[in-house]
Structure formats: structure tokens, C-alpha cells
Amino acid sequence: MSVKVYSTQVVGLKGVIIEVEVDLAPGLHSFTVVGLPDKAVEEAKDRISAAIKNSGFISPQKKNQRVTISLAPADLKKEGPVFDLAIALAYLLASKQLHFDVEGKLFLGELALDGTIRPIKGTLSLVKAAKKAGFVEVFVPKKNAKEAALIRGIKVFSCSKLADIVAHFKNESKLEEYPETKIEVNIKEDANKLDFSDIKGQETAKRGLEIAAAGGHNILMVGPPGTGKTMLAKAFASILPLLSFEEILEVTEIHSVAGTLSEDFMTLRPFRNPHHTSSYVALVGGGNWPRPGEITLSHRGVLFLDEFPEFERRAIEALRQPLEDGMICISRARGSLVFPARFIMVCTTNPCPCGNMGSKKPCVCSQAALMRYQRKISGPIIDRIDLWLEVPQVEHEKLSDDERTGETSKEIQKRVIKAREIQKRRFSKRNIFTNSEMNVREIKIFANLSDNVKSILNQAAQRLDLSGRAYHRVIKLSRTIADLEGSQDIAEQHILEALQYRPK
Fold first, then answer.
1. What is the domain extent for residue 75?
2. Where are the beta strands (DSSP E) in 30-100?
3. Which long-range contacts (CB under 8 A, 24 or more apart) does 207-210 make?
4. Second label for 411, Cα 20 to 30 Å away, from 107, 266, 313, 467?
5. Is residue 202 within a helix (H) or strand (E), and if so which, with residue range?
């Protein structure tokens, strides 16, 4: 007898519906899984047999029968233990130990030997795929239920044990539908969190970071060691606006698939800080079946690259596509996958290999060493960075002052949020959130320049030898500066301030 039950698995960041078929035939005992299973799926037969036995049912190993499990589509490699629950229920149906209508129902979960249902990765993507495919009920592990209930319009049932699901379908004890997850963001004050008022001086850098936060622009800070570049980058997270509901779903989905989700869902913007020794694959993503890298894990958040020129050259150049398009395409022999990568890149670098150029200490670098160091950041990458900030040394008198000076992060964040709200209204009918995401056509619509401002920009562009990309990035930056001031039009002072952030 053949029985079909439905499950799903993650491919890239999307869920794909998997048909789990079980066929029982007379003969010597065998348990076979077909359909390109990996090692975790092949081993499921032992987990499932033990789970069925320890849940009070007749195990497949107790009968002389040939058990064949087929996972369709057959040409898609099946990975992980997510199919355990579906296979177990399919066997119980095929062996007539259980009866229920499988249509419209989808099952997710790993089985322990005692029949306990363990949590899985990528629940949000899997449930989203189930809803899109027309399923009305989804059964998930208890620890994944809150995440699954973020998806509206599908019934979510939380399960702890295999026996609980069997009892549910036998009408012995019904599982309750899990309520829709309501997102309440309660940001607790962290005494150890860096605040802009903790950083002495560096007002120019603080202003640049405020602009970057308001418009989603990429930024690079240049200065000798110990001037506060890393502190500024870490404090940058404190002025970013909170995630919207749509962004929470996006970010949670990515981190759920990657297995980096520490809570039920993400409420804070990601802040990723990979070490400069990180490999190309770690940064970009990849593998036989590609997995998200650091640039995707920082989606809708911050990618902080400290000591930027020290990263592998290949890894730096791989940033071209995500910085331009907000996505990364990873191609392998078995296919191509596209991952979202819309982040704010914050980089730091020393002015030279020894770091002393421009400081009171003498620079010991040769001209050749200096040239090699500067060439590590190519022209196309330079074009994609909107703000270049000098971070000079701070006077010791300022450092010895114990009192907080300057604006707090909360005060700056209020202006950032106000500017973001202006952009939200501006782009309400378009699939973008910030000024930095505008294309050339949108720049002409939303960042139109007067003749006088255009003349100033053209003169500066000729003097600085700006590329077409850098030219448009200056306009987008000036649009953000105008938004921070609440100005509808881009004025002369806005374009002049934007120009001063280009590399000299």
C-alpha cells in the first residue's frame, strides 16, 4: 500500500514542497529511502523506527516487510532531519495504525528516539512556502511555533511528541491552534552599550554616520590606530531605526535558515563584524548547496569590516554586486541561488600600513608599500562607498574629561527616524526603503536638481573626476542631507556637504 504525506525543505532561502511517499510490500525486512537523500535523511529510518516503537506503536522493524520511502521531486537533493515527522506519520498511515485526511496538511520536525519532536532550521521559510502552496494546516515543533505563527492565514499547530499528533488525529486529545505571533519590541537599556556621547570629539565622523544611518549609505573611516574608528562603528548601531514588520520577517527568515536565530524572531538590526581573516565563502556565502554568508546575514543591518584593506582581495571585490544591487548571486554546477544583501557597509582603515601617516608619530612606510596598501581597495569599490571620513587623533585633554559631551544616540536617532519616515512616504509605491536604493530613473524623479545646484555639481565632478556611479551617489547623499533638514528641495549647501565626503 502506498501513502503520500507532505513536508518541505529549504533551498537557498525558499521552501520547496516535498512529497513523502511510503510503500509497504511483503518480503524480508528492508527500509530504503530514495530521492537523493543526504546522510541525515538516510539515517532517519533508525530514528523513525525507534520513535514509533517508543511512542507505543508497532515499529517497521517488527514486521517482515519492505519499506520504501520516496522523497519527491527525485532530482532535488534532500538535506537534514526535517522530514522525520512526515515519514513517521506516512508509515503509520500505510501500516493502518492511523487514519486521517492528509490533504491541506504539512508536517515539519526532527524525531528523537523517544518520539520527542525536536526544533528545525528555516521554519519561517518553510511555513511561508506551505501557505503559498495552498496548505491550510502546518504541524511544527513546539520551539518553532512562535516563529511559524508570524505567517498569517495558515493554521499552526505546536507539537511536542509524535504520540500527541496521533492522539490529535484519533480525536483522543486535540492540539490547540497556536495564536498569531504579535511582535512587541521592548528595547532594554544596556549599560554596556556604546553611546555617541561616550565618544570624545570626532564631530565630523558623527555627522557622517548620522547621514549614513538616515539614508542607508556606505561609509569608510580613515585614521591612525586608536582614534576611535571601531568605537564609532559599534556606536553606529545605536542610532539606527527599529525594524519594521516586513523587515523583521525578512531578517528572521535569513537567520532562521542559517541557524543563527537566538530568539523566536529578530527585533534588532543585525550587526555583523567578521574578522579580516574570514574566507571568501564565509563573507559571500557558498558551499555545494549554497548557504548565506556574512553579507546576507547583515541584510537590513550593518556589515562592519574593520581593517578593510586586510581582507582577501577576492572577498573585497565580491562586494561589488551586493553594494550595487542589494543582492548576491551564487552559481554552482547544480544551479544558481540569489540571496538578499541590502546592508549598510561600515569600513575602517589606517592611512598606511604602519598607521602613522597624518599623526604625530613618523610614518616608516616606503612609497612602494604605501602604493600596494592603497591599491587593495579598487576603483569600483571606492565608487560604491558614499562617505569617506577622516578620523584624526583626539587631544588628550578631551580624553581625560569624565563627563559625557555632545549629543546622545537617542537624540541623533530621533532625527534619523524622522528622515526615514520622509523616505518611507516618498517611496510608498516603490519596493525600496531608503535614498541609497534609488536607481537612475528614481533619482530623476525624487532628487531633481535646480540649474544652479546642477552647475555646482558638474564643476565639482569635473574637478574630482567623478565616475557616473560616484556622480549619482553624490546626488543620493545630498537627498538624504536635505531630508535630515526637512527640506523638500536639494539646496547648494546639501550638494556641497555631500561632495566633501568624496575621497580627496
1. 2-169
2. 30-34, 65-72
3. 208/387, 208/389, 208/501, 209/235, 209/236, 209/239, 209/346, 210/239, 210/412, 210/415, 210/416, 210/484
4. 266
5. none
The grid coordinates of residue 1 equal 500500500
From the list 434, 19, 492, 462, the residue with the least C-alpha distance to 211 is 434
> How many CA atoms lie within 13 Å of 446's alpha carbon, on the beta-carbon side?
28
pLDDT given at position 397? 60
**How far, in Å, CA of 280 to CA of 173, rounded?**
52
Residues of the chain with pLDDT under 70: 1, 184-192, 333-334, 395-405
Residue 274: what pLDDT?
A: 94
DSSP string, 390-417: E-PPPPHHHHT--S--S--HHHHHHHHH
Verify that 160 and 243 share a domain, yes or no: no
Half-sphere exposure of 184 (CA within 13 A, CB side): 4
> Is residue 292 a contact partner of residue 339, using CB atoms and an 8 Å limit?
yes
Residues 231, 154 share a domain? no
Regarding whether 249 and 104 lie in a shared domain, the answer is no
Query: What are the phi and psi torsion angles at 155 (to 5°)?
Result: -80, 130
The residues, ordered by sequence, that sit 6+ positions from 273 with a Cβ below 8 Å of its Cβ are 304, 306
Same domain, 136 and 261: no
Tell me: the pLDDT tens digits for 250-282?
Answer: 999 999 988 888 777 888 899 999 999 998 889
Q: Among all chains, which residue has been given the C-alpha cell 499552526?
A: 156
For residue 12, being part of any structural domain is answered with yes
Predicted local distance difference test score (pLDDT) of residue 436: 93
